[in-house]
Amino acid sequence: MNIDIYDFDKTIVPFDSGSLFCGYCLLHYPYLILFLPIAVPVLLTAAILMILKIIRFTDFKKICFMFVPLIPLDKAVKGFWDRHEKDVHKWFYKRERYSVVISASPDFLLNEIGDRLGFDKLICTRHNRKTGSIIGENCRGEEKVKRLSQEFDMTDINVINVYSDSLKHDRPIFSLGKNCYQIVNSKIVPFKYDEVYTNGDLRG
What we know:
The chain is of the alpha/beta class. It contains 8 helices and 9 strands.
């Protein structure tokens, strides 16, 4: 089966959906501000520990969505995409083959837009809807390929095109495609994998 792989944030949409959703929730559920005196020190401490490599990015991300139990999640997600669905890049609607969207963003946030846009397959970071915490690993980097292999027999799929904004983080999925496309300022920029990466690492 021929497939195309898409990253989501800053690829299909021009923003980081998780971060924007946090801002949306603060705006629409202002009582969350009451929890900021507790949340901000916790986030700052976690960020420092992550920078020092004492905790992983996945551990940090587990903290970022700790507000989820405090909001009507389904209503918030629907309202968010009612507002931002129009921001989806028009070129994404012209896709020609089976589309697999692989993202580090939360499943509780992307399931809604995936249904609206008709993703053939959505693979993203799994979260506990009651607590907001991550279940398993953050779907990023090599984890994207691992999750893809859990969903498909890799000998049965043929990856034609791969689209992502991030050369740094999405090398693993770019390595699967016959054609690679970086999204730069919302525009599609083709590149050759071997001209950008040397032994799997970015040149320069």
